Amino acid sequence: MFATKLCHSLTCCLMFLSLLVLSPGALAKPFTDDLGRSVDVPETPRRIISLYDVDITVPLIELGIIPIASHGRMGLDGKPYLRTSKLLTGVDFDTDNIRYIGSTEIDLEAIAALKPDLIVTSPIRATPIEPLQYLAPTVSLDASTLGTQHVYRKLAELTGTQNRLRALETRYKAGIDALKSTLKTGDITVNVFQPLNGKISLYHTYRSLGRVLRDAGFMFPALTNNIPKGDRIEVGAEYLPDLDADFIFDPYRADRGDGAMQERAAMDKVFPGFCQFLKACQNGRYILVSREVAISSSYSALALMTSLVQSHIASHLAFAVAKP
Amino acid sequence: MPQIEPKHTRHPLLTQNLCLSFGDSAVLHDISIEIPQNRLTVLLGPNGSGKSTLLGAMSRLNRPFRGITYLNGKDIATQHTRDIARKLGILPQSPLLPANMTVYDLVSRGRFPHQGMFAHWTSADENAVIRALEITGTLEFSNRAVETLSGGQRQRCFIAMALAQETDIILFDEPTTYLDLRYQVEVMELISQLGTQHGRTIVAVLHDLNFALQYADYLVFLKNGRIHQPATLPQDCTAELITAVFETPVTKLTNPVSGLPVFLPLRKQGGLKNVG
Amino acid sequence: MSVSVTSASRSAWPFPVLLLALVAFTGICACLYLMLGPRTINFATILNAITSYDSGNFDHRVLVDIRLPRLLAAIIAGANLGLSGMLLQGLLRNPLAEPHILGLNAGASLAVVLTLALPTASLAALAPLRPFTAALGGFVVFSITVLFSSAGRGGLTLLKVTFCGIAFSALASSLTTAILLLDEETLQKIRLWLVGDLAGVTLHMLYASLAPSALALVLAVFIAPRLNVLELGDAVATGLGISIRQIRFLTILAAALCAGSAVSLVGPIGFVGLIVPNLVRYQNGNDYRQAVPLTLISGATLLILADLVARMVLLPHEIPTGIATALIGVPVFIMMVLRTSR
């Protein structure tokens, strides 16, 4: 009995030692996470587990790192998926060797069994850090208050993928520059809103779509600019004229067959015949954008949004003269 | 004992073989009584003898499982509740008093059974209310809130409400409970006039034996849910009767002014322990 | 000793004067409601929109398509909530009775959410029936409440019915929440509606609420003189020719129809049903026959004002109407309690 126990402890010690000695990322480096904790993390972590699909897993994949396991969502068909990932990165639980470790409840035993060398979580996750840090070095990154760009930087620092991030950032900047060079963005007003329960939900900067519009230097109506940065407000239908712009973007549910028609019906419920009172709509410049893409903050989404904004506005301006 | 004429037409209210129970326990057994017209009949009996229950059965508040109450010669159970309310009024023991209600307002609620769908206030309604206020002596403070009045005045207001209902028969359930002596007299003086002077047939449940004897035209004694003694004149009540009904030894005196009997309890030290 | 005595009450204003004054005040509030908002529309434009409506004029459209349906919804829902409260207070002889507290609103919400969670094919068929669905939900939940609180010793008491009401209200609310947790799509559709809000009211919803409202009103006119005598206790009322069972059934039915119409229009809004009947009683005394029109008008006015506050207080934000009624209702309610407890 005692012998088995001793044997067991010894095995554990050996395993632990072997982890330290054998793993390539064994050389530790200090890292300060968004909770202000200083954590010794491997030089180049290889076995990363992500506890947040949208804010951690997708950025990691974009940086070229496939985590060994991730948080995900449970689909109605009983199969787990990474939210927005297939659409934006082409990677999901069923395409790559990523273990699903739960949605709201995270399976700690599964994490232990996978022997990770780094766990990345977020302050808004329900799982406490305490038990996680016994399993592997654990860092917490805060995308919701510090922004996605910050998280990309931190993840690049953790995984040594700064070069890859630089490339992504350069590609994005080039896209924005191209947009700016083809359009006089400072002369064009844009706005982003969507109908919500009989009112209009208006956004200062709507995720990737908003960031593209802001970075490109487009003008927004005063009502929109007065919203605190990153925030949104709900206004009544009577504000319709104050919401008008040269181009209006409405993030709609593109994951349903009748999403576009439903969006229009919802707007008509807010204000019957709304189109009549929006210049943008009268001129065919009320543009429905896939909410799934627009709401993401990934570089793929930014690229898609850049090109979507550019081609929509450019073609309207080019053919505007043809209109009486 | 006087003979009460057993003609149905002479009796606006009578019961035949009433049996009533609450749950498993029988409360009234085979009660048959006839209420004399234009008189004050008082139901008397010890606690739990079924007097209030009988009053309820006579006014369709309680439903007997056997037996019939005849109101104006017709079975009360077959009559519409609103029709009954035009013939028979009942003032229960503790009616609720809404806040801020004026005397006039309260008394006018008694007109409900006479009002139509849209409740037009007619001169008949107005006259009935004024008459009720006059009879009860409440006209002078008809504008005051009932809750600001004394107990006796308040009870007179409720009696006025019952009068405004303009029914030939009015039933009162312990109308003098919780009142001081002065107000008990005030209320009983009023009720006793209603029969002889205002042509109403009155039935009242009373607690106080001697009060009942002074004011009642007839007395009916109940015991254990049965009629112990049918309608009796006050002067015909004997000490034996009262002792038997209340299971308490009493002695009979005579009120020197009215000549009516008064019964006083005998103290147990008096050596009459074995009586009854 | 004539009519002047009949209307003797705490109010210095006789009933007809009070009624006329209230109608006039409601008219002024309705005009203000149409004029004020993020855009101020002057009275001339309102007249213009009536006489020569121009569908291309934004102000006309705002008046006719946005503010008018919403005003009408406020009137119908406010009048119904007030009447529902009045009926329940009369039935239970309790000035604290209210459709929201007693579970009628929660029952109505549960019924609406249940039908919304059904497959979409049946949804369209149910939409015009929604006020009746809601009324049925309120009726069932409150009937269960009354049945439970009538059981046991002492029959139906105020305390028992209030406790049962709160309990069944909580049960209905948690069932609603459970359905919504299982069905995220329905949740998205009605999350705001569950707070109680007038935004997004359409003419179809208004039409649908008319029939149950009218039915409830007819019942209320029948019930009101009976509540006048029911106030004096069940025995007195029976003695005066009232069938207690019939009046209880009809009152619960009418109160549920009112709550159902209101909830199907604007969601479960509290306080209106509590405050309005008490204000009417405070101002005009105990006569329920007079209280019916006064309650209808006061309820409508209160909800008009509350929705005006909801639209205006945090411009450009619009807050849910249910929050505005609470903002107005709580101080009024506390003031009322303090004044009556003196």
UniProtKB/TrEMBL annotation, chain B:
Any one GO cellular component localisation term in the record: plasma membrane
Compartment(s) of residence: Cell membrane
Transmembrane segments: none
SMART domains listed in its UniProt record: AAA
Keywords: ATP-binding, Cell membrane, Ion transport, Iron, Iron transport, Membrane, Nucleotide-binding, Transport
Main location group: membrane
Membrane topology: Peripheral membrane protein
SUPFAM superfamilies given in the database record: P-loop containing nucleoside triphosphate hydrolases
ABC transporter domain segment(s): 13-249
GO biological process annotation, one example: iron ion transport
CDD domains, per the entry: ABC_Iron-Siderophores_B12_Hemin (cd03214)
GO MF: ATP binding; ATP hydrolysis activity
UniProt similarity note: Belongs to the ABC transporter superfamily.
Protein name: ABC transporter
Organism this protein belongs to: Thalassospira mesophila
UniProtKB/TrEMBL annotation, chain C:
Compartment(s): Cell membrane
Swiss-Prot/TrEMBL GO biological process terms: siderophore-iron import into cell
Membrane topology listed for this record: Multi-pass membrane protein
GO MF term list: transmembrane transporter activity
Chain segments annotated as transmembrane: 12-36, 71-92, 104-127, 134-152, 158-182, 203-227, 247-280, 292-313, 319-338
Gene3D superfamilies: ABC transporter involved in vitamin B12 uptake, BtuC
Superkingdom, taxonomy of origin: Bacteria
Keywords in alphabetical order: Cell membrane, Membrane, Transmembrane, Transmembrane helix, Transport
Pfam families: FecCD
GO CC terms, sorted: plasma membrane
InterPro entries registered for this protein in UniProt: ABC_BtuC-like, ABC_transptr_permease_BtuC
Cited SUPFAM superfamilies: ABC transporter involved in vitamin B12 uptake, BtuC (SSF81345)
Family (UniProt): Belongs to the binding-protein-dependent transport system permease family. FecCD subfamily.
Name of this protein: Heme ABC transporter
Biological source species: Thalassospira mesophila
